[in-house]
Specification:
There is one protein chain. The protein has 263 residues and is an alpha/beta fold. It has a single domain (3-260), classed as LigB-like (Protocatechuate 4,5-dioxygenase, Chain B, 3-Layer(aba) Sandwich), CATH 3.40.830.10. Helix content is 33%, strand content 19%. It contains eleven helices and ten strands. It has helices at 20-26, 28-32, 85-97, 113-122, 141-151, 153-156, 183-197, 201-205, 207-210, 214-217, 225-234, and strands at residues 3-7, 39-48, 53-55, 104-106, 130-135, 159-165, 239-244, 247-248, 252-253, 256-260. The chain has a six-stranded mixed β-sheet, sandwiched between helices. A two-stranded parallel sheet has the order 3-4. It has a two-stranded antiparallel sheet with strand order 8-9. α3 links the parallel β3 (53-55) and β4. α1 crosses α4 and α5 runs parallel beside α11. The protein is globular and about 45 Å long. The protein starts with a strand and ends with a strand.
């Protein structure tokens, strides 16, 4: 099972028909990924915890509106996908076996917009069980890459692993409208593409030292760590493919990647 990193960008992706990334995600089943997964595991940038945590919800998941000041229709959207408590238990088991210590379960938390915004476009029927995995912002990229490595067996068990974040994410430097991407964003986005497609995964793990404008593109790392989870889950010899690239708000890159395990 391939793994994926999806740049979910602005929450307006949920309603704005003009966004190229929205149309890309709507074409998911037809053009990108044909198998129907048994369950979906989403490592979301919008759930930061001190220790690895999975949500283990019974029944339909609540839709969390973890954004402010957006158009009212966005707060009326629902994505009541079934919870995946068995998958949550399996994730916990794999992470603990790999030495990640105490892994917590949250039996009440629903899906934040890092999960439900892309999923409502990819799988609008909301009939596939979904489990979320938190990131740990105080840890580093290698920690999250190793977290992904621990979860690699899930692919053979029919689970689709998605890291949901953003290829660039500096909200202090976004702009309104369709202004051109600034040089710092283009430089980082291009470096990331070249590093991934060339298989320079160690550079991606050490992005803070290797990438141009790394601290500008990601002043905080939570939107980049989901990429490391997805990359690690595909294995050391994984092949990366750029499956979408577009921009919004000037500096928000929607670059998204497929990682295919190579035996």
């Amino acid at each position: 099972m391939d793994t994926f990193f999806i740049s979910h960008g602005s929450p307006t992706l949920s309603i704005d028909e003009s966004m190229a990334a929205r149309h890309f995600l709507q074409s998911w089943k037809a053009k990108v990924f044909h198998p129907v997964p048994k369950a979906i595991l989403v490592a979301s940038a919008h759930w930061d915890t001190a220790e690895p945590t999975v949500n283990a919800v019974e029944g339909p998941s609540d839709t969390i509106y973890d954004f402010y000041g957006f158009p009212k229709p966005m707060y009326q959207l629902k994505y009541p996908a079934p919870g995946a408590p068995k998958l949550a238990e399996r994730v916990k088991e794999l992470l603990q076996a790999a030495g990640f210590g105490h892994v917590k379960e949250d039996k009440t938390r629903g899906l934040d917009h890092g999960a439900w915004v892309p999923l409502m476009l990819m799988y609008p029927e909301a009939n596939i069980p979904v489990c979320q995995l938190s990131v740990q912002m105080q840890k580093d990229a290698r920690y999250h890459y190793n977290m992904g490595k621990a979860l690699a067996p899930l692919g053979e068990e029919g689970v689709l692993i998605i890291g949901s974040g953003s290829a660039t994410h500096n909200l202090r430097m976004i702009s309104r409208g369709n202004s051109p991407a600034p040089k710092w964003a283009l430089d980082f986005d291009t470096w990331l593409k070249e590093a991934l497609l060339d298989g320079r995964y160690e550079d991606v793990i050490q992005y803070e030292d290797k990438a141009p404008c790394a601290k500008v593109a990601h002043p905080w790392p939570e939107h980049f760590y989901p990429l490391h989870v997805a990359l690690g889950a595909a294995g050391e010899r994984a092949k990366a493919e750029l499956i979408h690239n577009s921009w919004s708000n000037g500096s928000l890159s929607y670059a998204s990647y497929r990682f295919t395990a190579v035996q």
